[in-house]
Amino acid sequence: MTEDYGEGNLIASTESFLNDVFESWVDSIKVLETCEEFLPLTEELHIVCRCIDSLAAKACTDPSLLSWSVSGRCATQSQVDTSLWNRINLTSKQDPMMDDWWHEDVASLQLSLFKRLILVVGSKGMSPERIAGSIMFYAKRHLPLHGRKSSFQNCTLSNMSDANHRTLLEEIVELLPNQKGIIPTKFLLKLLRTSIILHTSPSCRENLERRIGAQLDQAVLEDLLIPNTGYSVETLYDIDSIQRIVGHFMSMDQEETDSTSNSFIDEDQFARDSYSLTPMTMVANLVDSYLAEVAPDVNLKLTEFLSLAAIIPNYARSLHDGIYRAIDIYLKAHPWLTDSEREQLCRVMNFQKFSVEASTHAAQNERLPLRIIIQVLFFEQLRLRTSVAGCFYVSDNLEDSQNLCGKMVPTNDCIPMSSVQDEILTFDDMRERVAELEKECKNVKEEMEKLVKTKGSCSNFFRKFSLKFKARSSDQEPENAPSNGEADCQENKY
């Protein structure tokens, strides 16, 4: 079969034929698919590796330098784009090829050949973004990525067994590039949801959770609501996985902080570091929203709720309205909690970071312990005192500027006396508000002392105090104060 016995023997003819095949993308794909049926013979003849090298070289080529003939679409394109004008064939200009032109063709390969192709294109310098796009396309084609409304019907190989799907998913996760932000967080959460259903290995799940934790600030609440499908189902959603994901995010954020703590920080670097607080704040808001969604579950234990709520540091929450709303929903769904457990749950909140609306709602919330309501009133009083002190400071500056204007030549820029008098009236109203709050706190202390002496019911005092607080609020703001029915309807707003 060699040329020693004459020209045009089998080996030379076969080599010439294969060289012609490897110049065509479509022919190389067909040959590689055919080789799957004759393994390992085609491996011994080095046909598989030559096909993969040929495909990888074409896939790594700049798409702008390629024509549709490379991908085998020239024939179909010519039939569509060719028109006749005055008996002259005119072919319209073809659109440029996209970076993903090769994804659909390689998605028909078996996993072993696809994996080898991905490793070769990576060694040839293909960008991680293009590699990730091909892997995502392959996963969507062959895996039942379970969304909230999806099923196995979206998978072309739905007749595969769970064991084959499990192996396929584990191999795809290993192929994903390690660079942060290349794979969308939504897609990673779909892979995690599917891996939980298929019961993949712990290393596979840990890999996905670590990847999601690195870019958790890009996630949305709907994707985090992963149903609990374990053998011992206690809660509606998989709380443990989310807690591990948040833990990965916190540890990575701490590593980035420690790496820059020992270096000198100039003014520009401080401005850049202040921007890094934004992902932490986004994750804090996401966790608070997640807690509010899972709080109505009666099977959710207090320790699980607390561990997830306390993992977020205090500085990450600019306002504590979100965590207060989640705690209020949890207290409503778990009325059997003791007073000590309620107080333990409320320690997660910082009342100084409550908005005015949240403070007003908390002061009238009968589900909160009495000690917590007193603390809310105390910080509300402290906030009003600070506001009054600031207003008096502004008033003094206005009076000084008014005196200065009186000594100078009158101009249109001087502040009129009527505006100063209006400011003084506003300050008097705030002073009266502070005096009423001090009187209210004094009455609360006296009532508590009476309860301790008489060992009376705490609920009676709480009802009396709540009615008194509502009556005072209605007297001061009769136009904006909501009725009892409206307050009940807006109960879960905060």
The biggest beta sheet reads: 2 strands, antiparallel
What helical percentage do the residues reach? 55-70%
Tell me the radius of gyration.
35 Å
**Content of β-strand:** under 5%
Shape: elongated
Keywords: Coiled coil, Ubl conjugation pathway
Coiled coil: 420-454
InterPro entries: NPH3/RPT2-like, NPH3_dom
Region (Disordered): 471-494
Can you describe what's shown?
The protein has about 500 residues and is mainly α. Helices cover about 65% and strands about 0% of the residues. It has a two-stranded antiparallel sheet with strand order 1-2. It starts with 9 loop residues before the first helix and ends in a 5-residue tail after the last helix. Residues about 70-95, about 145-160, about 270-275, about 410-425 and about 465-494 have low confidence and may be disordered.
